[in-house]
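Narrative of activities, Objective 1.

The group set out to show that a structural description can be obtained from nothing but a protein's sequence at a throughput compatible with the screening campaign. Below is one input-output pair from the validation batch, recorded exactly as produced.
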Amino acid sequence: MAAKLYIVYYSLYGHVETMAEEIFRGANSLEGVEASLWQVPETLPDRVIEKMKAPSKKEVPIITPEKLAEADGFIFGFPSRFGMMAAQFKAFFDSTDELWKSQKLAGKPAGIFWSTGFHGGGQENTALTAITQLAHHGIIFVPLGYTYGADMFEINEVKGGSTYGAGTYAGDGSRQPTKLELDQAFYQGKYVASITKKLKLAT
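Output recorded for this entry:
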């Protein structure tokens, strides 16, 4: 049986979605892993989204809390709002009460990735505050560490991401994930997939 890896994300303007798609490709490049993409429910009314000039959502299935129990591992992605995950993703975690009570997600691995406007705290703080959600479920956080190699130390070009996971900068919204950021996203997908596969084979 292939290890099931769920890549669950929220994206308003598409930056996180682009990262998620690359993570998906990376995860599925590993034999013995079946990765799938999921979106969390939108909480903003359509009229608000229209005023924000956000693009239409892609045809990616909306996840429900109970679906998480089917997965062997996760990679969660979200934009940053004031140094924390967007309210839409927090609302989804808040709806996982029954899973928390039963601890059905305990022992399963998870990575995280994100998008921030700029470097002012969001790239690290968003990751740090997200880890608390995993801890309450007993989910095993899988950071990248410095396993990605020399590109982790790149300072000659703007690059999101860190030892916590892959990331990108959206700036005023016009900046899109770069090749370097997408390469790290691909690597994260493959890396977390490998950990998920190892843990599944060990059980």
